[in-house]
Please model this.
Amino acid sequence: MASKIILLDEATINRIAAGEVIERPASVVKELVENSLDAGATRIEISVSGGGLESIKVTDDGSGMGAADAERAFERHATSKIRKFDDLMSLGTLGFRGEALASVAAVSDVELLTRSRDDDVGTAIVVHGGKVTKKGSAAREPGTTITVRKLFANVPARLKYMRTERTETSNIVDVVTRMALARPGVSFALGSATREIIRTNGDGNLLRAISGIFGRAYAQQMVPVSFRQGAIEVSGFAAKPSLTRSDAAHQSFFVNARHFSSQMVSGAVQEGYGSLVMKGRHPAVVLALSMPPSEVDVNVHPTKREVRFRDDVAVYDAVREAIRSAMALVDKTPAPSISSKAAPGARGTRAPALTTSGKASSSGAQAALPVRVEAVGKPSLAKGRAVLGQIMGTYILVQDGDSLLIVDQHAAHERIVFEGLKKGALSGKLEQKLLDARAIEADPRTMELVAEAVPALRAMGFDIEPFGGNAILVRGVPVLAGALEDPRRLSELVTEMGRIGRAKSADERRDELLHMVACHSAIRAGERLSQATMERVVVDIEALEAGSTCPHGRPTRISITRAELDRLFGRRG
Ligand code: ADP
Ligand code: MG
Model:
């Protein structure tokens, strides 16, 4: 009987192994760029087409390879980075297994053009089906260019798992983003056939790298983080609370210059921001942790991105405190720009446009009933403070010792109501204002969502119930949201409730509801306020820990110091 066990041929072995290292085009980019970094490159240019499946080209100005090495580089376990097992302990490079190029070559067509600094002439090699099919000399500056074409063309099963060109390109962008953030001293350029996506100048300045990747406006919203606790150092940049996203895609973590992902560290960041950002929003951060190698086990599996810390608690505390102390500084030195516009990332609550007369120019801005502001905080203004008045019907001016405080009346009051309602909802202590029963009409979808929200709304102090097929009956509102006795505001609120996200946790939905209620019951831009109301708002917002931003993350106030004013007027202090 013929034997059933055979030895696999090399091409098959390589293709199987390739499956582990090369999952998708982004993995090829990662391996090639890591090789460039290992080769000491200072400039790396990447261009991709067809989401990387058509072609990926990486050019660097690194050490390059001599003719013999160039050919050997495609053999499995061919590496210049270690000689023996013990070398692993003192490894200073990103690669060492000598598997990447062999794997890439097993599942694509590869062209290599390289010249080492010691040679006068370069080497060109073509690899097809994992075998060198052409070799010759060619002119080139020292460095290496590797072009990968027709990725996975010979592995139809893998090709089936590929997503759209856009998704694969965006995975590549993520990979290059991480590496460019980890190595601000190296210049990275990433482009597709149609556009330049990333360009960093490689001058070593992390903020400039952030700017080259995410744009200037974005970089301007970041503040430095610099913190040390015991053996752990945390540095980098963190967004002001105004720059948040609904996902954590713009949170990048590095430990000892290696990228990693970690729920634990994300959680520490979130706790560091605390109530400055609303639940479900993620501020952008780029944090580099450094610690002695004995404190961290960097998983060297080529596709894994997890790390293990010896002391999770210490890392958690350090990250949380690093963010806290960075944000504490933001509070004390707000952007001095007087003309600062609403920050990007703010959603939803654009105040109505104002005409120069200070009257709201759009409908619905003037509530039929003035908002009565209920006291929730300390009784009176702190010493050294004086409310000077209201400007543009929108901002409250406060002299605060040697600074001028400008408070956004809507943003501030929104935060006050939000916090008050939240506290009340959690403690079960909320005062209700009784109204003559009123019915608010709503479409079927909104009705359904409001019906689902009824328990949460009751916990906040609403007396509310679905009534008939298309109406909601309201008999009471929370005292804090007393402005909702205005039927117009109430129906705006109900309409907005039709937008509550479904696929969310109960807590997230409650926060979203709190938001909507706060937004629709807060003082609006364009409303004239009495001196007493202004003082109330200023006192209450100051009393809140999260008072520096509104629940959407917009600032509630900015402060201009005397020194800044003096500078603007050209006075010398
Ligand atoms: P590893 O990086 O694990 O050593 P690779 O298969 O990724 O294995 O690369 C094999 C070898 O090819 C490397 O050890 C290195 O000597 C050489 N090499 C690959 N890419 C480059 C490059 N861009 N510049 C110089 N040498 C390179
Ligand atoms: Mg490598």
The chain has 16 helices and 24 strands. The two ends are 99 Å apart (CA to CA). The CA atoms of residues 17 and 299 lie 19 Å apart.
